[in-house]
Specification:
Blueprint: E1 5-12, H1 18-31, E2 37-44, E3 50-52, E4 59-60, E5 69-70, E6 90-94, H2 104-111, H3 121-128, H4 130-139, E7 147-151, H5 158-165, E8 169-173, E9 183-185, H6 188-198, E10 204-209, E11 214-222, E12 227-228, E13 232-236, H7 243-248, E14 253-256, H8 263-279, E15 284-292, E16 298-304, H9 314-320, H10 326-345
Parallel strand pairs: 1-2, 1-6
Antiparallel strand pairs: 2-3, 4-5, 7-10, 8-9, 8-10, 11-12, 11-13, 11-15, 13-14, 15-16
Length: about 350
């Protein structure tokens, strides 16, 4: 019998999306093929401490998305570059947001010489920064909504924003996901409050024009030859697809899979999703989100390089609709990580 592949599953982290990460990790660990893989659970607490976890029982309040937490923080873990005492064969970083999805974790894993699931350093970093990602997409000719960027030290003029983008607008931290810190502003007063809220999470924010359209999402899977899933549609029951609607209120939004689209619209979404994936130098997986306007025009909204893997998440559900089970999807992602590592290992590192 061949030896099992040891998969380091890293979750939690110093991020406003800590609890979302725990939910995603719980689902992935449950679905992992235990005949093929041996999970090594590594939890990162909210202060950044690393801890080995008990595989059988590693979460407190596991079924409560508001109180879910890492259970055991007694087994501290330290990592030394050049050594792999636990012999982890591949890492699945189930880390959403800052210090996990932004290239920092990916850079560390490359230094440790360990294969890992998802995009590498560059793709993770640029996709995480909505400002940089939108500029790259714009230069590549991808359709995006109009936006303005402000830094904390900038003088903020709400009148200028309203003049250029109109109302309502969406205000977002530049480097965060899961709708954390995002507000929809319908008046000048709401705009000022939304800006203050977003600056609590990042020193750079985006203000985007409101686009009247359907929220359509497409999953992408692969390395050199990425493939797009069928598109799905998010139908929020809240004001917009907020954190509450995504992760806490199971009735917060309806996911329509597949989305009711024409063949032409499906092809357009899939082509744009793959082009976006390649433009941002992504690998492994990503979910590309769109606004589909009534006239059939599609605008790329944003990209998630470690999309949610909770039981109500869109990414695995889109592949499930094409016959790829949750467990098979995890297997494919791990194999893509190993393939990329083997390809990179063939490169010369000395002259």
């Amino acid at each position: 019998m061949s030896k099992k592949i040891r998969v380091g599953i890293i979750f939690g982290g110093k991020s406003a999306e800590h609890e979302v990460s725990l939910q995603s990790a719980k689902n992935i660990i449950e679905a992992l093929d235990k005949n093929k893989y041996e999970p090594i659970l590594i939890g990162i607490d909210k202060k950044g401490g690393w801890h080995l976890q008990n595989n059988a029982n590693f979460l407190l309040h596991a079924n409560d998305p508001k109180q879910i937490a890492i259970k055991d923080v007694s087994q501290d873990l330290s990592i030394t570059p050049g050594r792999n005492d636990q012999r982890i064969d591949v890492v699945f970083p189930v880390l959403h947001g800052t210090y996990g999805e932004d290239g920092t974790m990916q850079g560390m894993l490359k230094l440790l010489n360990v294969p890992f699931v998802g995009p590498s350093v560059l793709g993770s970093a640029v996709a995480m920064d909505k400002d940089v990602a939108k500029r790259l997409m714009r230069d590549a000719g991808l359709p995006i909504a109009r936006f303005l960027v402000f830094k904390k030290e900038d003088e903020f003029d709400p009148g200028l924003v309203i003049k250029k983008l109109g109302l309502p607008v969406f205000v977002k931290p530049a480097n965060l996901g899961s709708s954390v810190g995002i507000s929809k502003a319908k008046s000048e007063d709401e705009l000022k409050k939304a800006v203050d809220e977003a600056f609590q999470y990042d020193n750079k924010i985006l203000i985007e024009e409101f686009v009247a359209g359907r929220e359509v999402e497409c999953a992408v899977l692969g390395n050199e030859a990425p493939k797009a899933s069928i598109p799905g549609e998010v139908i929020p029951h809240h004001e917009f697809y907020s954190y509450e609607a995504k992760y806490i209120d199971e009735n917060g939004a309806a996911l329509e899979i597949p989305a009711k689209l024409s063949d032409k619209e499906i092809r357009l979404i899939q082509e744009l999703a793959v082009k976006t994936f390649k433009t941002l130098e992504l690998e492994g997986m990503s979910r590309v989100d769109f606004f589909l306007k009534p006239n059939g025009e599609a605008l790329v909204n944003e990209v998630n390089t470690i999309p949610g893997f909770t039981k109500i998440s869109m990414y695995p559900k889109l592949w499930e609709a094409l016959g790829i089970t949750y467990s098979e999807l995890i297997d494919q992602l791990i194999q893509l990580a190993i393939q990329r590592y083997e390809k990179e290992s063939r490169l010369k590192t000395n002259y």
